[in-house]
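Try this one yourself first.
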């Protein structure tokens, strides 16, 4: 029986990077249909970026490096060379999510999501910048200039609405996975947990 997995995540969320990479590892080469849905940790973030490190210092009175240790450890185990000290900025992700929506029909949504995570976390690029998004889009099945037309105001607003709708579904944190529309799993769970959830969803018919 084929498996469908719906994923709510945000490109600016390091745990989402870890969780979605583990999802790929859990079902590599299997008949799995993965669909990404938008979720925005900071829907009011600017396209120019906001300094997350300063925000964390102000809010918690601690050095960000101390708080990064758990996700760094999880990323290392997962095979991601993550160093959050290299990316101090959080950007608005509405445009990136909009491209992801349109990548679904092209069959490149999963690959584009991974490319966006890599660009943001590993290359410290601005994933709200239209030139960066155009570059990544062309590498994932979009025609030259197509991304620009898809990032019109109406499309961005539709993405924002879908992100808001996630809250009405009871989704409060990401990553969030739903297997075959039946079983929900929250957080960057291990490969083993994801496989077990998939098996339980399949057995549920």
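Now uncover the answer:
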């Amino acid at each position: 029986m084929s498996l469908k997995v719906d994923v709510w995540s945000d490109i600016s969320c390091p745990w989402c990077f870890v969780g979605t990479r583990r999802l790929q590892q859990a079902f590599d080469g299997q008949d799995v249909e993965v669909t990404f849905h938008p979720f925005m940790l900071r829907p009011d973030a600017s396209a120019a970026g906001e300094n997350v490190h300063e925000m964390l210092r102000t809010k918690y009175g601690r050095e960000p490096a101390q708080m990064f240790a758990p996700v760094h450890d999880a990323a290392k185990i997962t095979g991601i060379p993550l160093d959050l000290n290299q990316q101090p900025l959080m950007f608005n992700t509405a445009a990136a999510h909009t491209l992801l929506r349109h990548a679904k029909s092209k069959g490149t949504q999963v690959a584009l999501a991974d490319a966006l995570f890599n660009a943001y976390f590993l290359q410290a690029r601005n994933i709200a910048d239209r030139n960066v998004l155009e570059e990544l889009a062309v590498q994932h099945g979009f025609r030259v200039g197509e991304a620009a037309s898809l990032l019109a105001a109406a499309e961005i607003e539709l993405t924002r609405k879908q992100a808001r709708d996630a809250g009405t579904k009871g989704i409060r944190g990401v990553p969030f996975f739903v297997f075959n529309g039946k079983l929900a799993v929250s957080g960057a769970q291990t490969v083993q947990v994801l496989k077990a959830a998939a098996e339980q969803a399949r057995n549920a018919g």
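Discussion: The chain has one domain: 3-203. The mean pLDDT is 95.
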